[in-house]
Specification:
By secondary structure, the chain is an alpha/beta fold. Helices cover 31% and strands 17% of the residues. It contains 14 helices and 15 strands. The chain is globular.
Length: 460
């Protein structure tokens, strides 16, 4: 009996291994792996840029988008690197020319950092996943990386495993946890002198340590643009990630793995402040997962120079979320904590407003896909569509006093407004549904900023 059970177990294991997908270190093979569905269902995530750059926390608020990034402070205040006079002038006048960026490590203390409170804020925002900058282009890591000796948050600065503490809190809150990781480092001597050795002895071991140690479900790489994916050995690393890592079944990656890979290779495609071109129609047509990342203001890292007018309103951010999701994408909305570990109150307020809206209308966001007629039936600036199964959601970012006409709908089992218990009047005629918004009063306590009509059976 025991022998028979043992043989059956071996056969079962052999069959399982025989049918398991093995990914080769080629883009053809790597790209054949489907992006796990949880990512396309999640729709809304929080990006966190936090590091030594949170100490000076400064960038201009005018000019091209990329010049507003405070996390680029080290490279831009250094006149020997890139000519950005505004950064150099600010640095010299406030800190003095003899103060180096590395001196900021003593003021990056994170003494107010409360990971459980952060996770609570994220949960209330309605976000489903979190992406923390484990290491930006300055090379400083937020975990005790062996490859970043004495240049990490445990051996210097806060003397705390920031990545580990936040990972634990986020996972306890039931959210997906992920990490941003910069492939290159501005001033790492090994990177400047011996790229192959940097990749094999520094970068890849560091990424594997991050994955093995914290088991993230998102690996969001960046800083890829100076080298090809072959030079970064990206296909080799991804083959390990998909075949051998502890998160091989659930991990999601982006498309920043070499200067030729954005929008072509990797996992989900990325845009940044909509700067990578208008690919919306292609995204809807081919259904490839994608994500827009952007800050609440003009910078990813905290920028003390930003004022109220530099921040998007809650209404604007909810509209951005609706727009991206209607095109089949996700929104990764960034916050920039302060050097002492606080999430600025204005950012908390924006996140709470998004969460309040999603608590009523999340059904039209989570788990949805772009409607088959989204591009053709786009109703200008104020009407958006999402679909889930047989149901169609019509999202209006302005209250509609005139009837809405939607073509491509031949059937409606029911029509309702999310958060409203009254009757919705509608009529289906041939290939068009006409819907009237209800008469409402303040007692109805409807959601602010945007309203959702659910057409049950309308997406067929």
């Amino acid at each position: 009996m025991k022998k028979t059970f043992f043989i059956s177990l071996i056969l079962s294991f052999s069959l399982h291994c025989g049918y398991a997908q093995v990914y080769k270190p080629t883009w053809e093979s790597i790209d054949s792996r489907p992006v796990p569905e949880w990512f396309s269902d999640a729709k809304f995530g929080i990006f966190i840029h936090w590091g030594l750059y949170s100490v000076p926390a400064w960038a201009p608020t005018k000019g091209p988008v990329y010049e507003k990034y405070s996390e680029w402070y080290w490279a831009r205040q250094n006149p020997k690197d890139k000519p950005f006079p505004a950064f150099t002038e600010f640095h010299n006048s406030v800190y003095g020319a003899k103060t180096s960026y590395t001196d900021f490590v003593s003021d990056f203390k994170a003494e107010m950092f409360d990971p459980a409170k952060w996770a609570e804020i994220f949960k209330q925002s309605g976000a489903k996943y979190i992406v923390l900058t484990s290491k930006h282009h300055d090379g400083f890591t937020l975990w005790p990386s062996e490859q970043a000796w004495n240049w990490n948050s445990v051996e210097a600065g806060p003397h705390r495993d920031l990545a580990g503490d936040l990972t634990q809190a986020v996972k306890q809150a039931g959210l997906h946890m992920g990490f941003y990781y910069s492939l290159y480092e501005w001033y790492n001597p090994l990177y400047k002198k011996d790229l192959p050795k940097y990749v094999s002895d520094h970068m890849i071991p560091q990424m594997k340590d991050l994955v093995d140690r914290y088991r993230p479900e998102i690996l969001w790489t960046d800083g890829e643009w100076e080298q090809t994916s072959d030079q970064w050995k990206s296909p080799d690393f991804l083959a390990w990630l998909y075949n051998e890592s502890p998160v091989k079944e659930t991990v999601v990656v982006n498309d920043r793995w070499g200067k030729e890979t954005r929008g072509k290779h990797g996992g989900f495609y990325t845009t940044e402040y909509d700067l990578v071109g208008d690919l919306a129609a292609d995204r809807v047509k081919f259904g490839h997962p994608w994500e827009e990342c952007r800050g609440i203001g003009g910078s990813f890292g905290y920028n003390r120079n930003e004022n109220l007018e530099d921040y998007e309103s809650s209404e604007s951010l909810i509209r951005i979320l609706i727009d991206k999701v209607s095109m089949g994408g996700n929104l990764l909305l960034n916050i920039g904590p302060t050097a002492d570990g606080r999430i600025p109150v204005i950012m908390q307020q924006r996140l709470k407003d998004i969460g309040d809206w999603l608590s009523i209308n999340g059904e039209a966001i989570y788990g949805t896909r772009a409607w088959k007629n989204t591009i053709k039936e786009k109703k200008g600036e104020n009407i958006f569509f999402t679909a889930k199964g047989d149901d169609l959601y019509v999202i209006a970012t302005q209250w509609q006093n005139q009837p809405i006409k939607v073509q491509g709908v031949t059937k409606a089992n029911t029509v309702s407004m999310l958060g409203f218990k009254g009757k919705i009047n509608y009529k289906v005629s041939e290939n068009t549904i006409t819907i009237n918004f209800p008469q409402v009063s303040p007692s109805h306590s409807l959601s602010k900023y945007a309203w959702v009509l659910k057409i049950a059976g309308g997406a067929k």
